[in-house]
Write a structure and sequence with these properties.
Number of helices: 10
Strand order of the largest sheet: 3-2-1-4-5-7-6
Strand content: 15-25%
Largest sheet: 7 strands, mixed
Shape: globular
Structural class: alpha/beta
Number of strands: 7
Radius of gyration: 17 Å
Distance between the termini: 47 Å
Length: about 240
């Protein structure tokens, strides 16, 4: 599943619209380090690590993290980006990021996995460490999004022969026993039902960082896919001097 999601991110770049939003936040903070939480197979970073500087932001170095690190995917992305993307090999909880991992935090297609108390705890941990944070979701709680999820199994069937690295097990679990297409559809459908709206994201952030944290939430159209990306970005106040 994570290989398919990573393949989709690399081929269609649905989160390309996040690049200018991140570029502005990183430039405002003077920050080039990014700590990506709940990274799975690496998400959109093969595209974004090049796109952020091209849209006026700094050159970024990304550390991928997850509760269950995908070390093979981290190594592959490190090779493809000449070391600009790397991975933390130890388990990293999104609600309590180790102090040694400093930088702007991001979550892509991940916050909906957390109920409101845990989602707020993720934001609160970033505020506690005076880190910026950006949350981006391509799923949306709407009827049209749920209908769109019906296409996912077909996409898995069409994409699987082109996903690398090649694995016989992937063919087995896609065509002979179609667990992967069904699991991707189920995961996508549940993700839509659990996705937060911009208003709900702002409510999660309400009261966090009242001493000057700036929160912005909204939706932006993602091309070439007929979908929207929901986002929440929090930026701490500038340090004196």
């Amino acid at each position: 599943m994570t290989d398919f999601l990573c393949f989709t991110m690399e081929r269609f770049a649905p989160y390309s619209v996040a690049a200018p939003l991140l570029a502005r936040a990183l430039t405002r903070m003077g920050e080039g380090r990014i700590v990506d939480l709940c990274s799975g197979g690496g998400g959109p970073w093969l595209d974004l690590v090049r796109r952020i500087p091209a849209t006026g932001g700094p050159v970024v170095r990304v550390t991928l993290t997850d509760a269950f690190p995908n070390r093979a995917a981290y190594a592959r992305l490190g090779q493809q980006t000449a070391g600009l993307v790397g991975g933390e090999t130890e388990s990293v909880p999104a609600t309590q990021v180790p102090e040694r991992l400093g930088g702007f935090r991001t979550l892509f297609t991940a916050l909906h996995h957390f109920p409101p108390p845990a989602a707020r705890a993720i934001l609160a941990d970033a505020v506690r460490r005076r880190s910026g944070i950006g949350v981006f979701e391509i799923t949306e709680r709407s009827f049209l999004s749920l209908i769109g999820m019906l296409v996912l199994p077909l996409m898995v069937l069409l994409a699987t022969p082109f996903i690398r690295p090649f694995r016989w097990s992937r063919l087995l679990l896609t065509y002979l026993v179609p667990l992967v297409p069904l699991a991707v559809w189920f995961d996508g459908t549940v993700s839509c039902l659990r996705s937060y709206t911009p208003a709900e994201l702002l409510e999660l952030a309400r009261g966090l960082g009242d001493d000057g944290y700036t929160w912005d939430a909204g939706m932006v159209r993602s091309a070439p896919l007929v979908t929207r990306v929901t986002y929440l970005i929090g930026v701490p106040p500038a340090r004196p001097g």
